[in-house]
Amino acid sequence: MRLNLTVNGRPREADDVWEGESLLYVLRERLGLPGSKNACEQGECGSCTVRLDGVPVCSCLVAAGQAEGREVVTVEGLADLARRRSGGGSPGEAELAPVQQAFIDAGAVQCGFCTPGLLVAADEMLERDPDPSDADIREALSGNLCRCTGYEKIMDAVRLAAARGSEGV
Amino acid sequence: MPDMPANGVPTTLTQGLRTRGGIGESTLRPDGTLKVTGEFAYSSDMWHEDMLWGHILRSTVAHAEIVSIDTGEALATAGVYAVMTYDDLPTDVKNYGLEIQDTPVLAHGKVRHHGEPVAVVAADHPETARRAAARIRVEYRELPVITDELSALAPDAVLVHENRDDHHIGHVPHPNIVHRQPIVRGDVAAARERADVIVEGEYTFGMQDQAFLGPESGLAVPEEDGGVHLYIATQWLHSDLRQIAPVLGLPEDKVRMTLAGVGGAFGGREDLSMQIHACLLALRTGKPVKIVYDRFESFFGHVHRHPAKLFYEHGATADGRLTHVRCRIVLDGGAYASASPAVVGNASSLGVGPYAVDDVDIEAIALYTNNPPCGAMRGFGAVQACFAYEAQMDRLAARLGMDPVELRQVNAMEQGTLMPTGQPVDSPAPVAELLRRVKAMPMPPERQWESSEGADVRQLPGGLSNTTHGEGVVRGVGYAVGIKNVGFSEGFDDYSTARVRMEVAGGEPVVTVHTAMAEVGQGGVTVHAQIARTELGVGRVTIHPADTRVGSAGSTSASRQTYVTGGAVRNACELVRERVLELGRRRFGSYHPAWATAELLLEGGKVVTDGGEVLADLVDVLGDEAVEVEAEWRHRPTEPFDPRTGQGNGHVQYSFAAHRAVVEVDTELGLVKVIELACAQDVGKALNPLSVIGQIQGGSTQGLGVAVMEEIVVDPRTAKVRNPSFTDYLIPTILDTPTMPVDLLELADTHAPYGLRGVGEAPTLSSTPAVLSAIRDATGLPLTKTPIRPEHLTTGAP
Fold first, then answer.
1. Is-contact A137 A121, C-beta < 8 A?
2. What pLDDT score was predicted for residue B3?
3. Residue A102's beta-bridge partner residues?
4. Quick one: which of B215, B59, B68, B57 has its CA closest to B129?
5. Maximum Cα–Cα distance for chain B, whole Å?
6. B32-40+495-634 shares its CATH topology with B149-207+307-382
7. Is B94 within 8 Å of B247 (Cβ atoms)?
8. Distance of alpha carbon B133 from the chain centroid
9. Chain B contact for A92, CB < 8 A?
10. Which of the residues A4, B143, B288, B372 has the least number of beta carbons within 10 Å of its own beta carbon?
11. B-contacting residues of A 130-169, CB under 8 Å?
12. Which of A47, A109, A139 lies at the smallest CB-CB distance from B35?
């Protein structure tokens, strides 16, 4: 089948999609966007988290056809999304979203395989709640497994992103 | 800048600037930006025009003869390019293995564990490959399964491997034992007479999975010269190469290996997984072949942590001094040897823990069974032993009426203590101090769940399941400390290679560091750049991608990479520095006497004297020349353990960590919440404090996981894995993981580069027994099995 969808603000099209393919597979293998990760492909780890019409979903559990005509944001689009949200700049200018910079600065990235999914989830949480408590952060990120960090630096990163956001940095 | 005449020689002297980003600073990862933007290319992200997808058919039974394999229907499937079985292997080399080559590339006549590879398929779509594999008809004649020590050593036991010719077979009492290591020192019988109290215990350690998030995957690309280029996630490129090339019938220089992005490892990538299968299919079809496991397959696709039964007897005098330790550690190695011999070596030699005790009688064995193969995982051998000996120390303290921390401190080893192997501990061993520090950390406040709006159930056992608002919740506190060896032991030639190049680019000096070190997330690439900046005084350092065009860097395991490959990078930098200074002397030596007389350093892009006088700019010293050195570097040698007594200087270095766990247990439902997991660790020298703390917190969490949730459940009747998914095999989420304060101690080991001590594994040891100890403290139950299940807490068994 042919699939039409919007990914990171751009209309995209994929041909010869087998009906059983997941949105994750189409993003990774057909649209050249391997940033969304394939750690479990069973909806348990959150590494494939993308936003589908704004809502965080495990893209491994979304049949590609379900994304027809819809809007997808992946980790590759987080910087643009942040820029649009803050009303500045034009899409395509290379820069990091605040939450991406915070993950680097706080040491929240080790192997990095969980990072894209965590970034999409954390970014969405901070959009809803710019000043989360620790318990709020843990609850919001509880669907994203990380095996390297023990989550402490991830907590630090989200707190840092929130603090910088409140300072308008 | 000093004034520079045309010949480039400074005429006035000034202070050199320190180069930033050297060792000891928390510099940020060079791959950080790529990893947060999604651009970092992991092994499962590899893509090639016209590539095929490989898929592996695995056995559905644990132990069986293969009566027949019919690949006809699979081959006839549209889109399928190749189906290969044992009969299609191109050479006489059909097995591989880290130490013992007992693992078939594809099963031959027999399968020995559930999920063993039987056939491989290449097709133009992953689903086509999967469906074709499902059409391969394999007829099995099932054999009895060996699942534990009793069945393995029974008089009529089936042999898991019939015709062993490995170098351990001569000293094991039964062919279903991979390796046995006794360690005997002193006179246990006499020491036992001196004991005022004796405590015994039997402990069970469950099978843990590494659960790295990046699945086994890679891309094999056939090359025009008949060779193959493999882009792969691994822990040791050259070890893979040594095992892959003979099976393919290719010389090693025709198997090119490049490290693709590695999504974690934790020991699970020491053994081969899909490497040979992808190369075979690529060479057979002449097309690039990508293989990516899903999580289900990943649970079958790599070795796990050895489950173990551990039997301990500790004796002590009334004042708490250990008289003796006896123990027997039975590790289940599963169907193939993998790293079992080394796991036995660690479990036995580290079996009494970081304590001074002169009279010991230790035995460790690893079994061959039909359970899933077990091998390397973070802290191997030492992890299982620590769980048991620390439970014993608590038991002994209770019997003596002593404080459990004080009992440990009374018996703590220190520099100069002899190990059970007779090896003196010849660098700092601050065991008592680590316990003191971790105990001195402030305790987390009580009843943190209480707020003005009632109980925040998210901070209680059971969480959002809303099972308690504090009723039946009891707090417990537990301590543990452990000892881990660093580096490959028992006489292994554990070297690393580094190639370092300095040249001028864009008008400034630039250093390139090229090693084959597998960056698996630990931050070795960060540290290599820091070492180069410190040694060569150059800010711009490029880390070349890891591949087999440079010599071996050894394994990213055994907490060894910063020590050994870091040591190799430092060594190569020193050699580069000598050559650069030689160049400088040739060019500018006549302009200033200090070139001949002073101790010269490279700092801030300049040649400076140890007094800080600038002699020349590196740009001028180098000119158009590039200085490049590739060199191997070794730590001091070790020796094998005596096969009968276990005596020998077998280890390179020891690493110590202590934990304090605070838990809250819903005693009515058996639910546990770990509130805080504090750690104190001696790291010798923190080359990158941010990364070191990340290692400690990550390692502690893996220890927490195996304490309260992680276990691969194998059916004892069928030897089949029952929970190969993240739905049924649970690893800690951010909700299960507490705050983890870390106290770093930096006591230099003068034998090691910069005094550093391997960091990665020690925190995985003591975290598990500390959590168990805290749960025992809360419940009063003996709790001799890990992981803890709710029913253990509500029924008291085991």
1. no
2. 42
3. none
4. B57
5. 89
6. yes
7. yes
8. 33
9. no
10. A4
11. 135, 137-139, 141-155
12. A109
- Looking at residue B544, the DSSP 8-state letter turns out to be P
List, for residues B26-74, the tens digit of each pLDDT value: 999 999 999 999 999 999 999 999 999 999 999 999 999 999 999 999 9
CATH fold of A79-166: DNA polymerase; domain 1 (1.10.150)
Q: How far is B185 from B325, CA to CA, in rounded Å?
A: 10
**What is the per-residue pLDDT for A87?**
83
Q: If you average pLDDT over residues B287-310, what whole number do you get?
A: 98
pLDDT number for residue A92: 52
CATH class, B43-143+215-262+269-301 region: alpha beta
Gap between the Cα atoms of A124 and A127, Å rounded: 5
**Where does chain A hold its CATH 1.10.150.120 domain(s)?**
79-166
Which whole number is the average pLDDT over B660-665?
A: 98
Asked if B35 lies within 8 A of A153 by C-beta distance, the reply is no
User: In this structure, are residues B303 and B338 in contact, taking their beta carbons and an 8 Å threshold?
Assistant: yes
Does residue B654 surpass a pLDDT of 90? yes
| DSSP-derived secondary structure letter, A168 | T
Predicted pLDDT of residue B18: 77
Confidence grade of residue B9 (pLDDT, cut at 50, 70, 90): very low
Backbone angles phi, psi at A71, to 5 degrees: -110, 125
In chain A, where does DSSP find H-type helix?
23-25, 78-85, 98-105, 115-128, 134-140, 152-166
| Of residues B38, B732, B735, nearest to A35 (C-beta) | B38
Nearest to A148 among B42, B521, B734 (CB): B521
The verdict on whether omega for the bond into residue B798 sits within 30 degrees of 0, i.e. cis, is yes
DSSP string for residues in B661-711: EEEEEETTTTEEEEEEEEEEEE-SS-SSHHHHHHHHHHHHHHHHHHHHT--
- The one-digit pLDDT tens for each residue of chain A (169 residues) are 999 999 999 999 999 999 999 999 999 999 999 999 999 999 999 999 999 999 999 999 999 999 999 999 999 999 999 999 988 765 555 489 999 999 999 999 999 999 999 999 999 999 999 999 999 999 999 999 999 999 999 999 999 999 999 886 5
Give contacts of B 6-65 with A, CB under 8 A.
26, 28-29, 31-33, 35-42, 44-45, 47
Band the pLDDT of B355: cuts 50, 70, 90.
Answer: very high
Q: Are B396 and B324 in contact (CB under 8 A)?
A: no
Please say whether the structural domain A3-76 has been given the CATH code 3.10.20.30: yes
Tokens 């597979």 sit at which residue? A25
Are A45 and B212 in contact by the 8 Å Cβ rule? The answer is no
E strands present in B492-580:
495-505, 508-514, 540-543
Residue of A104, A113, A139 lying closest to B213 (CB–CB): A113
State the count of interchain CB pairs (< 8 A) between A and B: 186
B129 and chain A: CB distance < 8 Å anywhere? no
> Given CB atoms, is A6 within the 8 Å cutoff of chain B?
no
pLDDT surpassing 70 at residue B8: no
Q: Distance between CA B235 and CA B214 in Å, rounded?
A: 13
Specify the fold of B427-485+652-795.
Answer: Aldehyde Oxidoreductase; domain 4 (3.30.365)
Confidence of residue B20 (pLDDT cuts 50, 70, 90): very high
- The top-level CATH class assigned to B149-207+307-382 is alpha beta
Percent of chain B with pLDDT over 70: 98
Helix (H, G, I), strand (E, B) or coil at B316: strand
Instruction: Give residue A95's pLDDT.
Output: 86
Nearest to B270 by CA among B230, B229, B238, B231: B238
ipTM: 0.98
Token pair, residue B90, equals 């191109």
For residue B701, the chain A residues in CB contact (below 8 A) are 149-151
